[in-house]
Amino acid sequence: MTRLSVNVNKIATLRNTRSNAIPDLSQLAALALACGANGITVHPRPDERHIRAGDVPELAAVVARYPGAEFNIEGNPFHGLVEYCARSRPSQATLVPDAREALTSNHGWSLLEMPREQWTALATAIAQLRTLGCRVSLFVDPLPALMPLARELGADRVELFTEPYAALAADGRVKEALSPYLAAAAAARDQGLGVNAGHDLNLDNLGPLLDGARSIDEVSIGHALIADALLFGLGDAVRRYLAICGKPRP
């Protein structure tokens, strides 16, 4: 079964438009977990546009109340991610190369062209996170050539950046969209890496991705799931995604 981690950034975005702490981020994260979600994901950014520093330990405490649930902190290791993880000790740290001004994550690590100084800094951050007890996942584009490099850096998993897949799938080009992800997932497995996936996944394109790749350990979904919660309620939205994640696959 592919595990579902609910990204609650968009709930925090709504909360931040007022000063009355509504909606209650911890309450809704707990609801998602109570309805079967396997974990909670946050992506704190330096400008605190959604997740704030104080949210991180509070959400870590919420997740700790649910046996087997995992807390995943995403972020740039050079913009404070390691410090967040040192304080909250999440199950997983997902390293994303987002710029400070980026609206959202829009590409994976460029490991093939990475300068030696950045390579060394990234490897050091990964080693620090593993010392803290975090499983480390690197956010990467679906390129098989990156997988030996991710292993060399010390990562435990990769998270495949799925925005290109989602864009092609929306145009009805699912088979074409899947091809690089199948190759990348296979290459990751050959290196002994776990495989996560995330970005722009939704109720329409999640099933074909999981059916095709068949080896995705975890998906992290926020924007579409929270939008679906406006239609179905958060609990029902979580259950709909879980039904896709839990579908038996050969």
Q: Quick gist of this model?
A:
By secondary structure, this protein is an alpha/beta fold.
| Overall geometry | globular
H and E order: EHHEHEHEHEHEHHEHEHH
Trace the largest sheet across and list its strands: 1-2-3-4-5-6-7-8
What CATH calls the topology is: TIM Barrel
Average pLDDT works out at 95
Relative helix content: 40-55%
- Residue windows where pLDDT falls under 50 for at least 5 positions: none
Taking the sheet with the most strands, its summary is: 8 strands, parallel, barrel
Strand content: 15-25%
Total number of helices:
11
> What count of domains describes the coordinates?
1
Number of strands: 8
CATH architecture assignment: Alpha-Beta Barrel
- CA-atom Rg in angstroms: 17 Å
Distance between the termini: 11 Å
CATH class designation: Alpha Beta
Annotated CATH homologous superfamily: Aldolase class I
Q: Structural class given helices, strands, pairing?
A: alpha/beta
